[in-house]
Amino acid sequence: MSALLPAVAPALPLHEAGKYVAGAYIVFLVLIVVYVAIMAAKLQRIERELGELASFAEQGKGEPARAVEKSSVGGGS
Amino acid sequence: MYGKGLRPLSIATVAMLAVSLSLVFFYAPLEADQGFIQKIFYLHVPLAITALIGFIVGGVFAIAHLRSGNRKWDAYSYVSIHMSVIFGVAVLVTGSIWAKASWGHWWVWDEPTLVSFLIVFLLYATYYPFRYAIEDPERQARYASVFAVTAGAFVPLNFLAVRMAQSLVHPRVFATANGGLPGSMLLTFLACLAAIALLWVTLVKFELTAKSASGQVKRLRRALDAPAPGAASRIAPEVG
User: Fold this and answer.
1) ipTM at complex level
2) Per residue in B44-61, pLDDT tens?
3) Which of A6, A9, B88, B191 is deepest in the core (most CB within 10 A)?
4) How far apart are CA B192 and CA B23, in angstroms?
5) Residue B209 sits at the chain A interface (C-beta within 8 Å)
């Protein structure tokens, strides 16, 4: 097969070669875009989780303060 | 920690890609034999070289992990191999397009360069099921490192196959007795190689940064003892 390759591999005219070259570069671009989109989705998930954790931490911080507030109010009555 | 310098690196990568694409389409001359189709060479070969070197880099990180026991090196090794597999997909697809345009076939089984790359790619494709078949994280990291070192040893065979291949279908990029590239083509090729290598480094850093952030969120969740919103992803090692 390899010996036959030069015989079956003439230079394609530009209008025909163009679609193959464009195809190769577009495939590369699409792969990169898909990868970046997946990473963006992951980062969005991380951001959402961080938001949940932040509100969880704020609640945890707020609860003892409210408990102290309640006990001091109760103690005063 | 991993995100440091990511922005200038990304800008440099985009700039380098723009420069190299300009060189490919506006500076490099048309090749006498293949004409315009040869432009695929400037994408396909740098991708292949970067992917293969990435596999070797993954093996080197795996050695560092086995020597030190530090999980950070395992994460580096995993991400290097992961990125090289993605680049490997691009190599196979662009190579097939080039083969179809040049030879009239999507794949040629008696071309050692193609088949040896496919073997290396398929070998690394088994890395994921191999890795995630092991539950214990310590064992998983250790076995994956052993795999990365062993598979990394196969990669130079691919370079050797290109050099030893009898047919001259794939051009010898760096000067040999029978060929080499003319100056303008060599410059364009080296610019493309630098751009693709930079892209690989940027994406590896990007992935490591994301994994590090994800790992820190998990640690924070454990520290706060907060309930997880869903099942934890086991697709990648945690990076501290």
Assistant:
1) 0.80
2) 999 999 999 999 999 999
3) B88
4) 9
5) no
CA dist., res. B59 & res. B71, Å (int): 14
Choose among B128, B75, B127: nearest CA to B238. Answer: B75
**pLDDT tens-place values along chain B, 240 residues long:** 666 788 899 999 999 999 999 999 998 888 877 888 889 999 999 999 999 999 999 999 999 999 998 889 999 999 999 999 999 999 999 999 999 988 888 998 887 778 888 989 999 999 999 998 988 888 999 999 999 999 998 888 767 766 776 555 555 555 555 557 788 899 999 999 999 999 999 999 999 999 888 888 888 888 877 565 554 444 456 665
3-class DSSP state of B126: coil
| Contact between B97 and A23 using a beta-carbon 8 Å cutoff | yes
Q: How far apart are alpha carbons B189 and B195 in whole angstroms?
A: 10
CB B218, CB B238: distance < 8 Å: yes
Q: Is residue B47 part of a domain?
A: yes
For B39-69, the three-class secondary structure string (H helix, E strand, C coil) is: HHHHHHHHHHHHHHHHHHHHHHHHHHHHHHC
C-alpha span between B139 and A49 (Å, rounded):
28
Q: Is B236 on the interface with A (CB under 8 A)?
A: no
The model's pTM: 0.81
Tell me how many domains chain B contains. 1
Do the domain assignments include residue B239?
no
A&B contacts, CB < 8 Å: 103
State the Cα–Cα distance between residues B101 and B129, nearest whole angstrom.
35
